Amino acid sequence: MANTPDDKITIPSLQARKATGPRIVCLTAYDYPTAKILDEAGVDLILVGDSLGMVVLGYENTVPVTMDEMIHHTRAVTRAVRRALVVGDMPYFSFHLSTDETIRNASRFLKEAGAAAVKIEGASAKRLKLVEAMVEAEIPVMGHVGLTPQSIHHLGRYRVRGTAVEGARRIVDDAVHLEKAGAFAIVLESMPVEVAAEVTRAVRIPTIGIGAGLACDGQVLVLHDMLGFSTGYLPKFVRKYADVHGVIAGAARAYAADVREGRFPDDATSYHLKPEVAAELAPKKSASRKGRTPK
Ligand code: KIV
Predict the structure, then answer these.
(1) Does 5 reside within a domain?
(2) How far apart are the CA of 254 and the centre of ligand 1, in A?
(3) Ligand 1 centroid vs 294 CA: distance in angstroms?
(4) pLDDT tens, position by position, 169-203
(5) Based on the number of CB atoms within 10 Å of its own CB, is 19 exposed (0-12), middle (13-18) or buried (19 or more)?
(6) Pairing, β 185-189 against β 24-28
(7) Does 178 lie in the same domain as 257?
(8) Structurally, how many domains does the chain consist of?
(9) Which residue minimizes the CA distance to atom 3 of ligand 1?
(10) Do 216 and 95 belong together in one domain?
């Protein structure tokens, strides 16, 4: 069951792509206008990632992002999307206290924000139980293994994972366990292509790679990175498809010059009174003023 561009993407139709192709196209989005553009461009899966914190909200990493921020931005995205599957990212500390709180938070993405699924980082035994509990509560879950950015304080810095045998095996096992726990797809972030290929062979659910090579069933990038809109460091795996930073800076400089030199606004960008109203409004030369023109 391959999708044509007009078909609404569902979890079963995405999963069918593993066998039939085409590869799954995923990007992040955080607001109404960009989500609308991506949806109309035929992106299959839109992830409202907690990368929101870094590329939109100006946080140093994803740790400070809150549930309310995620819900606010996911709502803007789902208002725009007609075809793509929208997945909301569970932010740090939204799934760390108890199963009940995890399900309550995850359900907000579906009930309040209109997403079809949630994504959760990691595959520890405790995390797998949460995945099972969410799936049991009818909340579709996407897993995320390899580099898990919410662990930044543990890791020290963002780096490629699974480069030695033990770490590579752990990633494959994590993915298999996530599938068993009921995840419908898994993000594979920052790992050697050989490891991602092995995971993709080992599971029956789609793998969505970011810095994980071509063997994955689909690819995701952070929108602001691929648009050339992000400021600061870009990982090696990002390909820049545009220079939005340059476009915005160029437009802002051109506008500033026009304002300073009196070229904006011009006649075409101004409103005018009808001549008779303008005449009525114009100061009249009254007899009592004896022809003096007010200054
Ligand atoms: O937050 C995010 O944007 C993500 C992607 C990098 C997969 O988790």
Answers:
(1) no
(2) 34
(3) 66
(4) 999 999 999 999 999 999 999 999 999 999 999 99
(5) exposed
(6) unpaired
(7) no
(8) 2
(9) 49
(10) yes
Residue 228's Cβ-side half-sphere holds a number of Cα atoms within 13 Å equal to 11
Which residue do the tokens 């809150």 mark? 66
The domain in which residue 258 lies consists of 248-278
Indicate the helix (H) or strand (E) that contains 195: helix 193-202
- Give the chain's mean pLDDT: 94
CB atoms within 10 A of CB 193: 14
d(CA 211, CA 56): 21
Quickly list DSSP for 180-224.
Answer: HHT-SEEEEES--HHHHHHHHHH-SS-EEEESS-TTSSEEEE-HH
**For ligand 1, atom 2: residue with the closest CA:** 49
How many angstroms is it from 258 CA to the middle of ligand 1?
39
Please tell me whether residues 15 and 107 are part of one structural domain.
yes
23 and 209 Cβ atoms separated by less than 8 Å: no
| Per-residue model confidence (pLDDT) at position 288 | 53
Q: Is 189 noted as a catalytic residue in this protein? A: yes
Nearest residue (CA) to ligand 1, atom 1: 49
Distance (Å) of CA 71 to CA 88, 135, 143, 148: 8, 20, 19, 21
Ligand 1 proximal residues by C-beta, below 6 Å: 28, 47, 49-51, 89, 187, 189, 210, 220, 222
Which residues on neighbouring strands pair with residue 219, listed in sequence order?
A: 25, 209
pTM equals 0.92
Please give the pLDDT value at position 156.
84
Dist. CA 194–CA 263, nearest whole Å:
58
Position 68 in a domain: yes
Residues 216, 208 contacting (CB under 8 angstroms) = yes
The residue type at 229: F
- Contact between residue 223 and residue 29 where contact means Cβ atoms under 8 Å apart: yes
Spans in the chain with pLDDT lower than 50: 1-3, 5, 291, 294-295
